[in-house]
Amino acid sequence: MNKRRGAVVAVEIETGSIVTYLSSPSFSVNDIAGGMSTIDFNALSKDTDKPFFDRAGQGRYSPASTIKPLIGLFGLQEKIINWDFTIDDPGFFILPEDQRVYRGWKKGGHGTITLNDALIQSSNTFFFSLAYESNIDKLINYLSEFGFGKNPCLDCFNSDKGLLPSPEWKMNNLNFGWFKGDTVNLGVGQGYLSATPLQLSYYSAFLANKGSLKKLSFIKGDNSESLGLNNSAITDSDWDKIHESMIGVIENPKGTARRLKSLKSYIIAAKSGTVELVSTDTKEDYQIVRENKGNRDHAIIIAFGPMPNPKYAVSVVIENGESGGSVAGPVAIEVLNSLLNK
């Protein structure tokens, strides 16, 4: 992590055991246990990077594009799309209700694409459109089944549940009704939705294990509580194709994390993302915004491997890292390399 702010959580998929849990920057527990000077303690407590804050279990981050495999599965489940379904991606989506424009990351868009293409190339337009066609109550329930808005851990200390928004939540907390644009934002993991790196590692492992997983625990083998999708219409073929698309994120020449291919000797399924902190309409606007480092996008990735029989799943968030594929991605690869002794 090179002292960058963020978190890494990795789990053993078969057992739900947490095998890596890092909040960065951190501090020496031994120094505190053995006693430290007031000056040294005050330096830690006043550090603007907040080393006492557990980013892994309590940091809230938008999942950004890492949510797209789940949105794709929801579309398949509800028969809104199938694997042959295509849309023309011009680089933006226009909300019919008020003509608001929701932009993708690639100027000019991705052209005619399927779900597979949209996951590999991370088309925002595809998932804006899919979310727009989704029933918000069903979508929120589906997100919940993947661990969002819940504590996925049996014995983690004071872990946060993130925020799984709903029309009722918005009215009670913000005194505004739910807009269709709020649903569209959920399609790319932005808006009110937030999750901890711990929840994202659970989500990653849940995807890897095809919709079932034991609750996470720090104690290996001391876990019998399993969770799974209710009334799932997702077939093994659908799961395999989702995994193939996520493999393409790294292995395909058009994949958004293709730079990671040379960093490992085995196959990994992944989905990277960029968490937008300040909304801008153009790359030129963003260049102005990013002059303040604290306004730069967060880098995020979920990954699992080795494929086709994944053993470990990992999530990485690097605050203000900007690129999930090229900044958070190498950290995820190094963690998996270490766990697999590659």
Description:
- The chain has 342 residues and is of the alpha+beta class.
- The protein contains 13 helices and eleven strands.
- The chain has helices at residues 29-34, 38-45, 55-58, 68-77, 115-121, 124-132, 136-145, 167-174, 180-186, 197-208, 236-251, 283-289, 324-340; strands spanning 6-12, 17-24, 87-89, 92-94, 101-103, 111-113, 212-214, 226-228, 269-275, 298-305, 312-318.
- The strands form four sheets. It has a five-stranded antiparallel β-sheet.
- β4 and β5 form a beta hairpin.
- α5 (115-121) runs parallel beside α11.
- The longest helix is centred in the last third of the chain and has 17 residues, at 324-340.
- The model has no long low-confidence stretch (mean pLDDT 92).
Write the layout of secondary structure elements.
Blueprint: E1 6-12, E2 17-24, H1 29-34, H2 38-45, H3 55-58, H4 68-77, E3 87-89, E4 92-94, E5 101-103, E6 111-113, H5 115-121, H6 124-132, H7 136-145, H8 167-174, H9 180-186, H10 197-208, E7 212-214, E8 226-228, H11 236-251, E9 269-275, H12 283-289, E10 298-305, E11 312-318, H13 324-340
Antiparallel strand pairs: 1-2, 1-11, 3-6, 4-5, 7-8, 9-10, 10-11
Helix pairs in contact: 4-11, 5-11, 6-9
Which class of secondary structure composition applies to the elements? Answer: alpha+beta
**CATH topology label:** Beta-lactamase
Biggest β-sheet: count, sense, barrel? 5 strands, antiparallel
Radius of gyration based on Cα positions: 20 Å
- The CATH homologous superfamily is called DD-peptidase/beta-lactamase superfamily
Secondary-structure element pattern, one letter each: EEHHHHEEEEHHHHHHEEHEHEEH
The dominant shape is globular
Q: Terminal Cα separation, in Å? A: 19 Å
> How many distinct beta strands?
11
By CATH, the architecture is named: 3-Layer(aba) Sandwich
CATH hierarchy, class = Alpha Beta
Q: Which spans of ≥5 residues are poorly predicted at pLDDT below 50?
A: none
What is the helix tally?
Answer: 13
Task: Provide the β-strand percentage band.
Answer: 15-25%
Number of domains: 1
Mean pLDDT: 92
Strand order across the biggest sheet?
Answer: 2-1-11-10-9
- State the share of residues found in helices, binned by percent: 25-40%
